[in-house]
């Protein structure tokens, strides 16, 4: 994300620290998404365990980001676009941490599947959802880096595709269960996994709304009702 140097060099320095923290969270989430998917595809309980443990580092980065935001607000009392930028950074860190929580839950479900050696007909659809979520998050980051508002809006609108996949998975899981595919426990686990992915999609949608407000001072929903 490109920014014009501020009149106060100290403010710029503090915002650079904030940008570094957010970038670190982004890279951590990229890796967590990839590790979660590979753990699921291979039913690798050790890799899933590592995903859960790495969530602690993400929580710590979120805490540092929140502290940094509060410190900037207290020291510099920014106004207008500067204020929106600080508040947006604060909100973005919180959304990143929540995505990490959903990935942690996803990994816990993988461990349960692996423990019971379970395999369902809807598993390929779960992988498809994961691919869609990874693409959504990656495209969001690119749109922010390029200050590309139309591209970010396109990411926001694509969330419906993930919602549709989630609905399809629920339908297929119930249909397949009636045909003898899996037990009640595995059915619930599959729906929980898919729900966590759907919620990640919602969080990315929130991130686009935060980015849009930072850049325009307007709410995205009011512009595209």
TrEMBL record:
It is found in: Cytoplasm. InterPro entries: PhoU, PhoU-like_sf, PhoU_dom. Gene3D superfamilies: Phosphate transport system protein phou homolog 2, domain 2. It comes from the Bacteria. Keywords: Cytoplasm, Phosphate transport, Transport. Residues 23-109, 126-210 form the PhoU domain. Homodimer. Belongs to the PhoU family. Plays a role in the regulation of phosphate uptake. This is Phosphate-specific transport system accessory protein PhoU. The lineage of its organism: Bacteria, Pseudomonadati, Pseudomonadota, Gammaproteobacteria, Candidatus Tethybacterales.
């Amino acid at each position: 994300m490109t920014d014009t140097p501020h009149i106060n060099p100290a403010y710029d320095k503090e915002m650079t620290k904030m940008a570094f923290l957010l970038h670190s969270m982004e890279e951590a989430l990229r890796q967590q998404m990839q590790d979660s998917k590979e753990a699921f595809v291979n039913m690798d309980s050790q890799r899933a365990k590592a995903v859960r443990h790495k969530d602690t580092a993400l929580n710590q980065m979120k805490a540092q980001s929140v502290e940094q935001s509060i410190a900037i607000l207290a020291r510099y009392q920014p106004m207008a676009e500067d204020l929106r930028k600080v508040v947006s950074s604060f909100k973005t860190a919180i959304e990143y941490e929540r995505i990490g929580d959903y990935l942690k839950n996803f990994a816990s479900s993988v461990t349960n599947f692996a423990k019971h050696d379970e395999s369902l007909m809807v598993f390929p659809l779960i992988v498809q959802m994961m691919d869609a979520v990874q693409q959504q998050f990656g495209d969001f980051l690119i749109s922010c880096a390029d200050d590309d508002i139309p591209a970010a809006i396109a990411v926001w609108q694509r969330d419906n595709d993930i919602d549709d996949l989630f609905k399809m998975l629920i339908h297929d899981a119930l249909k397949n269960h009636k045909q003898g595919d899996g037990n009640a426990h595995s059915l619930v686990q599959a729906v929980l996994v898919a729900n966590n992915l759907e919620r990640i999609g919602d969080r990315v949608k929130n991130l686009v709304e935060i980015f849009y407000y930072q850049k325009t001072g307007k709410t995205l929903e009011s512009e595209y009702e």
